[in-house]
Amino acid sequence: MLDKKIVDLINLQINKEFYSSFLYMDMANFYTDESLNGFANWFKIQTQEEYAHAMLFVDYLQLNGEKVVLDTIQKPAIEYKDYKHPLVAAYDHELMVTRSINDIYAAAFDIKDFKTMQFLDWFVKEQAEEEQNVDEMVKRYELFGADARALYMLDQELGQRTYTPPTLTL
Ligand code: FEO
Question: Domains in the chain and their CATH numbers?
Fold first, then answer.
């Protein structure tokens, strides 16, 4: 059993994680259309990670005997202006997700739900890494993006990224 407020917030979080997966797929598609297949690969892996995050929240509710309530997933609706735009939008999106995780953590703290706080600890750390990774992408693009040869090499490097499943086990 979990407190209803925590269940509601986690159900909202499930939707946000699935939306994140959708959003990053949309960004991957943008780069594929622009023939930047390495950037596309990097975002496709983000898509997988976000799906895995959603499933961890699903599993957490179900392991606690709570009902998962799925809702409509918003359509990604960003018109990307240039190659840098998705990177900045991804960074802003991760900041929003961090705030959302922090809100669940604060709600759990208020009612002394230490079990949920312990579960969320992994996400707090994960968000710090995600913010750092996307911030680094923005900075590297700013450094190298204007030079065609450097952009090609960056794209090649991002094409090497492989998916690693979450280290959190429930
Ligand atoms: Fe699941 Fe990138 O937050």
Answer: 4-158 (1.20.1260.10)
Token output for 8: 């509601």
**Which pLDDT tens digit goes with each residue over 14-61?**
999 999 999 999 999 999 999 999 999 999 999 999 999 999 999 999
- Atom 1 in ligand 1: which residue has the minimum CA distance? 50
Q: Which residues of 118-137 are buried (b: 16+ CB within 10 A; e: fewer)?
A: ebbebbeebbeebbeebbeb
> How far does the centroid of ligand 1 lie from the alpha carbon of residue 125, in Å?
11
Atom 2 of ligand 1: nearest residue by CA position? 94
> CA-to-CA distance for 61 and 10, rounded, in angstroms?
8
Distance 126 CA to ligand 1 centre (A): 8
Answer whether 127's CB lies under 8 Å from 101's CB: yes
Ligand 1 centre distance from Cα of residue 170 (Å): 18
58-117 pLDDT tens trace: 999 999 999 999 999 999 999 999 999 999 999 999 999 999 999 999 999 999 999 999
